[in-house]
Amino acid sequence: NLVLDINLTSTQCLKLAVSKALGIATVAGSSVVKVPQIIKLLSSQSGAGISFLSYALETSALLTTLAYSARNGFPFNTYGETAMIAAQNVVISLLVLRYTGKTVLAAVFVAALASGGFSLFNEGVIDMQTLTYAQMGAGLLGVASKLPQVWTIYGEGGTGQLSAFMVFNYLFGSLTRIYTTLQEVDDRLILYGFVGGFVLNVVLAAQMVYYWNSPATAPHAEEIGQKPADIAMGSSTGASTKGKGPTTRRRG
Fold it and tell me: Using CA atoms, how far apart are residues 32 and 204, in angstroms rounded to an integer?
């Protein structure tokens, strides 16, 4: 209907068209947004700098939002990325647990998600009123999910294997979602969740920039076509080469 009834002289129509385009682009982009992170984990065989707790909390929040949006009949272009990102989160979480030797926890994690997903999408198990309450918690959980990652970066003095591509795309995506929600979804629970997520994504992006030149973060150079050795050499000038090597801690 939007295509058939489009009116280029109508501001509201143009806003909706932009919202639809951004929503579709966000859903499409979300299908690969965490692939660089998965590749980094596979190539390094290390989960350094990655907080499993952060991913577990975010995945739980995404699963709840996915069920809430689908059962409310919201346009798919306003929430489709939650399914894509949740699936990639599961892969990343399992890789982190594998590389840290926590295979039993990985099995428990998958079982918990499967059980939770079945319950959230089944109206006979969780009614709409209860799901609404769950969405309230999911908004807070989504924001809280960023905090362990922020703390992990601060504690390790670098972003480790965290993907810069993913962080900055998350920042853009969350800002886009604020706009599309305002245009197409009359639901403050969803809106507040995206606003809170955007604020924490700004913090993560700021950390990525701040720690960009630290030795622990030097591998990010590969994502922008630079040689990691050049950045690492520049950032470690004057650092001691004895013992365990140059420190990766920087405190602001």
Answer: 19
